[in-house]
Amino acid sequence: MHLSEAQLAEFDSEGWLFLPECFSAEEIEVLRAEAEVIYASGREEVWRESTGAPRTAFAAHTYNEAFGLLGRHPRLVEPVSQLFGEPVYMHQFKINAKAPFDGEVWQWHQDYGTWARDDGMPEPRAMNIAVFLDEVMAVNGPLMFIPKSHRQGVLAAGHDTATTSYPLWTLDKATIAELVEEGGIVAPTGKPGSVLMFHGNLVHASPPNITPYPRKIVYLTLCAVSNHIRKPTRPEWIAHRDFAPIEACAEDALERYARSRPKVAA
Ligand SMILES: O=C(O)CCC(=O)C(=O)O
């Protein structure tokens, strides 16, 4: 998938891009079913909320065939390589659950703040490209972005290890109020299969999900190969050490896998 000049200009100006319904219902259905199996497993890579509900599952592309294909999918890998002008490797891979009723907040933060401080990533030449596995609605804990905030560079942050089970470098209220004054807040919503990509310095958050509606999103954190991390402090399954360029799978690989595999009970 190739980004147009207009999309590149929009990304540069706003810091994010929404690409509606890039994956078919058949491709998404297999990923959704596999995600539930992973959440129900006792794997150490599945991080939980204080209630025990799943919060995120790391590194599923390394042990699950369907997510392995998604992690190499040309619809995700190509636009990010295009933006960076070089091949990319997988820095992090996670399936965030934002579970019905129990999905907790993700505080205001910049992703690159964590990649730089915790992983020793030299430059913000990495970004999340996310695939909606469920419909993302205004009410079920959508991602919220402060448009244009990626132009601020790395902002001062504090290491919050208390608010949720997942430590994060978060921004203070005064900084958020100032940025919102300028850029406002947007919360992109859309059908399963839609894709969101956003700059590593774009300030974002998501509120708790107190509804019965699920809101699973898969995040591929793709990093320019020359920008690989230098000083990792987190486990390999959170900040990967395999800096080999991703070789994209065939355009229809996930679709063929979905058609060939036996049904997984959700
Ligand atoms: O999935 C979410 O709601 C937020 C995830 C997020 O902010 C992140 O991965 O940096």
Task: Note the main attributes of this structure.
alpha+beta, three-stranded antiparallel beta sheet, 27% helix, 266 residues, binds 2-oxoglutaric acid, Jelly Rolls, seven-stranded antiparallel beta sheet
When the domains are counted, the total is: 1
How far apart lie the N and C ends? 30 Å
Overall radius of gyration: 17 Å
CATH class: Mainly Beta
Shape descriptor reads globular
Proportion of helical residues: 25-40%
Low-confidence stretches: none
Which architecture would the CATH scheme give at its second level?
Sandwich
Q: What is the name of the CATH superfamily?
A: q2cbj1_9rhob like domain
* SSE sequence, one letter per element: HEHEEHHEEHEEEEHEEEH
Number of strands: 12
* Rounded average pLDDT: 96
Give the strand content.
15-25%
Short description:
This protein has helices at residues 5-14, 25-40, 65-70, 74-84, 111-119, 173-183, 253-260, and strands at 16-19, 46-48, 54-58, 88-96, 106-109, 126-132, 144-145, 158-160, 168-170, 195-199, 204-206, 217-224.
Helix and strand topology:
Blueprint (H helix, E strand, L loop, with lengths): L4 H10 L1 E4 L5 H16 L5 E3 L5 E5 L6 H6 L3 H11 L3 E9 L9 E4 L1 H9 L6 E7 L11 E2 L12 E3 L7 E3 L2 H11 L11 E5 L4 E3 L10 E8 L28 H8 L6
Antiparallel strand pairs: 1-10, 2-3, 3-4, 4-12, 5-11, 6-10, 6-12, 7-11, 8-9
Helix pairs in contact: 2-7
The site of 2-oxoglutaric acid has 9 residues, from strand 11 and strand 12.
